[in-house]
Each structure stands twice: as structure tokens, then as C-alpha cells.
Specification:
Layout (H helix, E strand, L loop, with lengths): L7 H5 L11 H14 L5 E4 L9 E9 L5 E9 L6 E7 L14 H4 L3 E5 L35 H16 L5 E11 L1 H13 L5 E5 L6 H7 L5 H10 L5 H8 L4 H5 L6 E6 L7 H10 L5 E6 L11 H11 L7
Parallel strand pairs: 4-5, 4-6, 6-7, 7-8, 8-9
Antiparallel strand pairs: 1-2, 2-3, 3-5
Helix pairs in contact: 2-4, 4-5, 6-7
């Protein structure tokens, strides 16, 4: 995959025009207030023994998300440490879910607690009844409910991820003042949304090669991946739906959430990424409201970003900001 986007100098200065809907803040205030109004307790069950782990404890968590519906998560933490621990809330990439706890051992090995949030309709443990009977899907989420922001799939998924931050307060041994939100691809876009909607409750955000950013440009230049679902939809459903489609997507655009986020932020970008082209990532990064923002550039990377080199970068960055666990 060759370099197909702007040069790095152009990317550093890339700032697209704002597409903020006038009622963006009111829409999300209303959405989150409605979700919280359903109440519901956070439940956790210790399941460590099922996975043969000796140095990590695992809880199977359920917390109320969109419409009060239960969302599944794993809570992992180092065994024998009472806390309160800094907690990494992890959002998952496209068409994935929380998987198995043995997939997610990095942060507990580094001394953090980690809350791994299932993606409704994508992960196996959280059905999305907003898409019908709750049957799990592998793709197609980009255009589900795209006729209006009220109906769109990402309204529900983003709400779940914000409610995951709410759930931290009800889980023992976690430090609510040291919540870090992270994820790659879709998870990176969701992390940006959470940072933009959660105010000072988020201590740091780390979006890796974030998806869900700069939709209007991404659909024109992405060569692979889920943005092409939007292209196919518009190709098949005639040009009169173009305006409404992008008007809906503006409510879920990571660029608009970034303009409202102030927590320290560590982004990453792959300059050969055919799924999330670099200018879409820089659109969010350059518009980010917080003063403490850092971009890790992987010059020859595809959508995998820094692969195994990325976690040490993240751990060092968190240590520099006083967000590492006490030793």
C-alpha cells in the first residue's frame, strides 16, 4: 500500500470546515439523560476460575446502557491488589466484541484495572434490539437507521460506551479520578465520543487509528473497510439521500466530539492506512479542544498502526501524566 493521502506537512495543517449540527449538544444531552433515567444497577460476577488465570481476577459485568438495556463487559485487574486502581475503559473495533478475557491481559499485567466493553449487535453477549430481534451482525452497522440521528445505530453504541464510564463509580476498587478511555479503529472513534461527552470524568483518551471521523471526506478516499458501506448505500439509493445521510452522520463524527474533548489525548495514525485515511485522523486531532494532545505517526503502517510497538508508547505516555498504577 503506497502513500495515497496528503503529505505529512499538509496533514499537520489539515483543518476541515465544521459540520457541527446546531443541536448537537442538546441531542446528546437528551440522549444520555434518557438512558440514565432508566436506572439499573451494575452487576459483577467473579469468573476467574473459568479461564485458568493465576495473576489476574476477572469479573463478568453487566451495566445499563442504551434504553437501560444490559451491556456486557469484562473487568480485569491484577490479583491481590485492593486499589483504588486507575481503570482503562476499552472500546472495541468494528464487527468485534469483548471476546474472551484472555484476549485482554495487557493492562492488568501493567497494574491497571480494565473494563472491556462489548459492542451491541457486534459482540456475542450484547444484542441490539434497536436492529430488530437482537440478532448479531458482522457488518452493515454504518447504514442502520441512517434515515435520522434518532434511529442510527451509533446513537445506541456511543451511549453504551458513555454509560461504561458511569459504571466505573459502582465497581469496587477502581479510581474514578483516573479513567482512561482507549480503543483502535471503531474503538478509537468511540473513545473520542466518550471523551467529548464525559467532560472531566475522563482523565485521558488514547484513540488509535480512529474510525468514525470526517465521514464526508472518508467516504470519498477510503479504499477498504466500513466507510465503503456508506458509499454502496448511496450508490444504490439514489442521490437524493446524500444530504440526509451526511446530516445524520454529523451527529456521530469523531471530529465533532474531538472539538468538545479536553482530556490529555494520545492519537496514532498509519500513513498507509487504506481504511481510515490519515487526513480523517488528523481532522479529529487538529480539531481536538484539549491542549495536551500528541500524535504518534507510524509512517509505513496500514490500519494496524504501530502493532506491538504501540502499547509501550501508551504506557510511557500515561506514566508521564501521572496515570500509572502505584508500585
Amino acid at each position: 500500500m503506497p502513500f495515497t493521502d496528503l503529505g505529512l506537512d499538509e496533514l499537520i495543517g489539515y483543518r476541515p470546515e465544521s459540520t457541527d449540527p446546531r443541536d448537537f449538544d442538546e441531542f446528546w444531552r437528551r440522549t444520555l439523560d434518557e438512558a440514565r433515567s432508566h436506572g439499573g444497577a451494575v452487576k459483577a460476577e467473579r469468573v476467574t476460575a473459568q479461564y485458568g488465570l493465576r495473576t489476574v481476577d476477572v469479573d463478568d459485568v453487566r451495566f445499563p446502557g442504551w434504553n437501560g438495556e444490559p451491556v456486557a463487559a469484562w473487568l480485569l485487574r491484577p490479583r491481590g491488589v485492593d486499589g483504588p486502581l486507575p481503570v482503562v475503559v476499552t472500546c472495541i473495533g468494528y464487527s468485534g466484541g469483548r471476546g474472551l478475557p484472555t484476549d485482554q491481559l495487557l493492562w492488568s499485567a501493567a497494574g491497571y484495572a480494565q473494563l472491556v466493553v462489548d459492542s451491541r449487535g457486534q459482540g456475542r453477549d450484547t444484542p441490539d434490539h434497536g436492529m430488530g430481534d437482537g440478532t448479531q451482525w458482522v457488518e452493515g452497522f454504518m447504514t442502520k437507521g441512517i434515515d435520522s440521528p434518532e434511529n442510527h445505530y451509533y446513537r445506541r453504541l456511543i451511549t453504551d460506551c458513555v454509560r461504561a464510564v458511569d459504571a466505573v463509580a459502582e465497581l469496587p476498587g477502581l479510581d474514578g479520578n483516573r479513567i482512561v478511555v482507549t480503543g483502535g479503529s471503531q474503538g478509537g472513534g468511540l473513545a473520542l465520543a466518550v471523551a467529548g461527552l464525559s467532560g472531566d470524568r475522563v482523565a485521558a483518551v488514547m484513540p488509535d487509528v480512529p474510525f468514525l471521523c470526517h465521514f464526508r471526506e472518508a467516504t470519498q478516499i477510503a479504499e477498504e473497510g466500513p466507510y465503503l458501506e456508506i458509499v454502496a448505500y448511496l450508490r444504490r439509493h439514489s442521490q437524493h439521500r446524500v444530504r440526509q445521510t451526511f446530516a445524520t452522520l454529523d451527529y456521530f463524527d469523531g471530529v465533532n466530539f474531538a472539538r468538545r474533548a479536553t482530556a490529555p489525548a494520545l492519537f496514532s495514525v498509519g500513513l498507509m492506512d487504506p481504511v481510515c485515511p490519515p487526513r480523517t485522523v488528523y481532522a479529529a486531532f487538529n480539531g481536538y479542544a484539549g491542549e495536551d494532545r500528541t500524535m504518534t505517526v507510524w509512517p509505513f503502517a496500514d490500519h494496524g498502526g504501530g502493532y506491538g510497538a504501540n502499547p509501550p508508547t501508551q504506557l510511557s505516555w500515561l506514566l508521564d501524566r501521572g496515570l500509572a498504577p502505584e508500585r
